[in-house]
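Sequence in, structure out. Go.
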Amino acid sequence: MDKKNLSTAPIVRRYRNIAGITVGAVIVLIFVGGLVRMTGSGMGCPDWPQCFGQWVPPTDISQLPADYKQQFAVQGREIADFDPVKTWIEYINRLVGVLIGFFALLTLLFSIPMRKIHPRFLWTSLIAFLSVGFQGWLGSIVVKTDLSEGMITLHMIVAMVILGMYLWGWLSSYDFEIQNKEESSKLTGWLIAGVLVLVVAQIILGTQVREGIDVLAKEMGEAERANWIDNLGVVYNIHSFYYFLLLAVIGLWVHLRRYSSSRLFTGLKNSMLILLSLEILLGIGMHRLDIPKVFQPLHLLLATLIFASLFAQLVVFLKAKTNKTEEMASV
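Output:
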């Protein structure tokens, strides 16, 4: 079967569809995780995998034993008063995680026939599936350690790795359709990769800032919310220095204008700049309005979409370059 027919082969279409759904589901889970953080629901379920020892969480305190604070203590400390809203927000977060587990399994199963085209589909899907399982285990550790600093950042990093793997697999299923008529250099790939590294660094710093906010919320209380930013320290100052990243993205966008024969690539390039502009505006709003809760999950969602856009650009660029090289070699 030649490359043109491969793009419409049933095994490719099945894999492409489920891999695309899994990509979307991972992004949704990251956003839901942001909602959990925004509402302070991270310990809404103090145990794992059950919630208050039940597979279906309670909706009223009357469904819990009188000594539930002691019975479900975390690291020897009594838990907070039962809040059904926070409990169910955390539980829904877990349900979305379970749903992604099913999508990951289906992606793995649909990748088995794809090994006939290239083994990378099977191996990528297998590693991604195992990473989803590791992420679930890591989530249990986050709960058991009472949302300890560092663990949340690691949890976020693993989420980005998983997203990257599924993006790579999904876009690789379009390998046979990705073409580029323009001449390109190694510099283009390095520029995309460099900006991607900067974005990942900003996301990691942002997660650490979020950890710092949680600590200050406990130590200073909501009454001192206006003073939180002044106490966040050097990590927040570095994270707030977005000018360099903005210049890097604008420079990349200008450079990529010469690499615009692909509609997909052009869309990714433009979305990168638009998303970063919105992200910066939202960040400024968070700074000036004392970090409103409603802005926090949106800030995380935009960061995730920026990462996805840049990672997709890198994959598409590499695929187009490889296809062009193969085409020239066959002439």
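Check: Confidence is low (pLDDT under 50) at residues 325-331. The radius of gyration is 22 Å.
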